[in-house]
Specification:
The chain has about 650 residues and is an alpha/beta fold. The protein has 19 helices and 16 strands. It folds into three domains: about 15-360, ABC transporter transmembrane region fold; about 370-405, no CATH class; about 410-645, P-loop containing nucleotide triphosphate hydrolases (Rossmann fold), CATH 3.40.50.300. The chain has helices at about 15-70, 75-130, 135-140, 145-185, 190-235, 235-240, 245-300, 305-310, 315-340, 340-360, 450-460, 480-485, 500-505, 515-525, 530, 550-565, 580-595, 630-635, 640-645, and strands at about 370-375, 380-385, 390-395, 405, 410-420, 430-435, 440-445, 465-470, 475, 490, 500, 540, 570-575, 600-605, 615-620, 625-630. A six-stranded mixed β-sheet has the order 10-13-14-7-15-16, with helices on both faces. Strands 2-1-3-4 form a four-stranded antiparallel β-sheet. A four-stranded antiparallel β-sheet has the order 6-5-8-9, with helices on one face. The two termini are about 25 Å apart. The relative contact order is 0.08.
């Protein structure tokens, strides 16, 4: 079984600079003041990090003074007692500086965590909001595991970037700039030696870090595929066991897991060798700096430095001692920056995929006809009401400023409709049908004939390529989609129940429905009896898509959910296919009550739900080849007759 393809995983960001700029712009949009506080704290921490270099030089100078005084004839204890106050003052000053650095570090870390989690929270909200506005086509063409990876893997890489990579790079960068300034102040020659080390480290980082980043991205791809496969296996566990596919599934998982192991191993080999290599390069140049400094001391060679330009005299010994500490610190900061390259590459690729989801074209809606509560006067005129009356009307504004109100009756007509999910493959050809208010219209035909497609067009999950669909005489393109769908009740073959109580799942069909209305809907769907036998009745908690209910019970709740909405038009897409024959008879009585007085579109394989329809449409390869009631079609001895006489369930 092939693993689902993870769209977008396993590649670098196509526009890294633009993605980073957008990410930072959003960060400043939400947390501008807080980000400036964190940046200020990081600047303080970076400056405090450079302070030891100056501190060491100062202490070394005091010690040199004490040595000189002792050599000049002053007794040792007196000489060192003379410099002790200055040393203690320096110690106290450094303690104060480090205390300031501690406060700044604590503040930046604590506030950074608040910013990071708050920003991710807002990103997830925006992603989910964008996802809610996407058309059904998007979900039909994208793997669920792929979409989920945006909320898990991609968001986690952004967390790593904001909480660790950006602060680390910013702080290390500031520290490097400050160190360069201090190094040039002390010694230009030894600074050049350190720069040679930096060039070598950059070359190593480019080679080793580049390969590490490449394999880390591949690791993300493999991880996404494995997660998608696991999700698919969990959803299809019954099918796996029914067909004894455990061994094959295990083999497929092993293949994906081995690929993940291979990519992760390569990524971590490069990542784990980078720091030791950088550390040893730093050690080599540490020795080299010490050697150059020793030569300068031994030969008393003149050095080019900023302190000399300012007329400040510093002994070469104190300069070398100070420089050795700065060299180690410089190399460590370069290593920290290089170590973040992998995380930055992955985070920018993840952020780009998050932005792709946020930037997906939302479902367009140019409708301006709305559904309103209607008051019907004695003369039959219709007007809008603020309160609920049980009557509905289409509010239709016109270009001349006038408004007309058309009663919602459920008259649906399709005229010469052509449609294809992709332009190059048309699945409906010249479909024309009429469903008058209160009629029950059934669609029969082989799988793929276009039955469900017709209902997808009625509720505008997809828009037609050619032809017209009219609802109560109004072109459905003019009706606002939310209002159109509110007037339709849909019961699908695959039930979807949500985490919550039974009552909440029924109320999903009408969020302002009272408990009494929900119970009445359950009774109408013949679900009340089994609900009252549940441990907590209507307050029984459902999880995992109602896994604690039978398939038939879940379908009954789905029917009750549609019933509570009380729509004038019902679409039943094989609504009883998952119910046993005995339960179907019970449900059918409830559905008959539900369908009374409504326009109903039925897609069914079982003839028991088809024969009592007012009109039966027989579809074949996207065309209506027969239409009429049961008796008429039987008398014609056509396709429907063959299906009916050949089996009691349509193939």
């Amino acid at each position: 079984m092939a693993a689902p393809r993870m769209r977008g995983d396993g590649r670098r960001a196509k526009n890294a600079k633009g993605t980073l700029a957008r990410l930072i712009s959003l960060l400043f949009t939400y947390y501008k003041k807080e980000v400036f506080v964190v940046l200020a704290c990081i600047i303080v921490v970076a400056l405090v990090g450079v302070a030891p270099a100056v501190y060491i030089q100062t202490i070394a100078s005091y010690i040199e003074q004490g040595v000189a005084m002792a050599k000049g004839g002053i007794p040792g204890p007196e000489a060192y007692a003379a410099i002790a106050p200055a040393i203690l003052k320096s110690l106290a000053l450094m303690a104060g500086v480090y205390l300031i650095g501690l406060v700044a570090s604590f503040t930046s870390t604590r506030l950074g965590a608040v910013i990071t989690q708050g920003f991710l929270n807002k990103l997830r909200q925006r992603m989910f909001g964008s996802m809610q506005s996407l058309p059904i086509r998007y979900f039909d063409t994208h793997n669920r595991g792929d979409i989920m990876s945006h909320y898990t893997n991609d968001i986690d890489t952004i967390r790593q970037l904001i909480s660790q990579s950006i602060p680390t790079v910013f702080q290390a960068g500031l520290t490097l700039i400050a160190l360069v300034a201090v190094m040039l102040y002390f010694s230009v020659w030894m600074t050049l030696v350190v720069f040679c080390a930096v060039l070598l480290m950059l070359f190593v980082t480019r080679f080793v870090g580049g390969n590490s980043a490449k394999y880390f991205v591949r690791q993300q791809q493999s991880l996404g595929r494995e997660e998608g496969f696991i999700e698919e296996m969990m959803n299809g566990q019954k099918v796996v066991k029914v067909f004894c596919h455990e061994a094959a599934s295990q083999a497929d998982f092993d293949r994906l897991n081995n690929q993940l192991c291979s990519d992760a191993t390569r990524a971590n080999i490069f990542a784990n060798t980078l720091m030791p290599i950088m550390g040893n390069i730093g050690n080599i140049f540490y020795v080299l700096v010490a050697f150059v400094g020793a030569l300068l001391i031994a030969f008393e060679a003149p050095d080019v430095s900023l302190h000399a330009l300012f007329g400040i005299e510093l002994s070469m010994l104190t300069i070398v001692v100070t420089f050795l500490g700065m060299t180690k610190q410089f190399v460590n900061n370069v290593s920290q920056v290089s170590q973040q390259i992998n995380f930055v590459v992955m985070a920018l690729a993840g952020a780009e995929r998050v932005f792709e989801l946020m930037d997906e074209t939302p479902e367009t809606d140019d409708g301006y006809v709305t559904l309103v509560n209607a008051c019907v006067a004695e003369d039959g005129s219709v007007s809008e009401c603020a309160e609920r009356t049980g009557h509905w009307a289409w509010k239709h504004p016109h270009e001349d400023g006038s408004v007309t109100y058309t009663p919602l009756t459920g008259d649906v007509r399709m005229v010469k409709v052509d449609f294809g999910y992709v332009p190059e493959k048309i699945v409906l050809h010249d479909v024309t049908l009429y469903a008058e208010p209160g009629q029950k219209v059934a669609f029969v035909g082989a799988t793929g004939a276009g039955k469900t497609t017709i209902t997808n067009l009625i509720n505008r999950f997809y828009d037609i390529a050619d032809g017209k669909i009219r609802y109560d005489g109004i072109n459905i393109n003019k009706i606002r989609k939310a209002d159109l769908r509110r007037s339709l009740g849909i019961v699908l073959q695959d039930t979807n129940l949500f985490t919550g109580t039974v009552m909440e799942n029924i109320r999903y069909g009408k969020l302002d429905a009272t408990d009494e209305e929900c119970i009445a809907a359950a009774k109408l769907a013949n679900a009340h009896d089994f609900i009252t036998r549940l441990p907590d009745g209507y307050q029984t908690a459902l999880t995992a898509n109602g896994a604690n209910l039978s398939q038939g019970q879940r379908q009954l709740l789905s029917i009750a959910r549609a019933a509570v909405a009380d729509p004038p038009v019902m679409i039943l897409d094989e609504a009883t296919s998952s119910i046993d024959t005995r339960t179907e008879a019970i449900v059918q009585r409830g559905m008959d009550s539900l369908m009374h007085g409504r326009t109903v579109f039925v897609i069914a394989h079982r003839l028991s739900t088809v024969r009592n329809s007012d009109v039966i449409m027989v579809l074949e390869q996207g065309r209506i080849i027969e239409r009429g009631d049961h008796e008429k079609l039987i008398a014609e001895h056509g396709k429907y007759y063959q299906l009916y006489t050949g089996a009691f369930e349509l193939e």
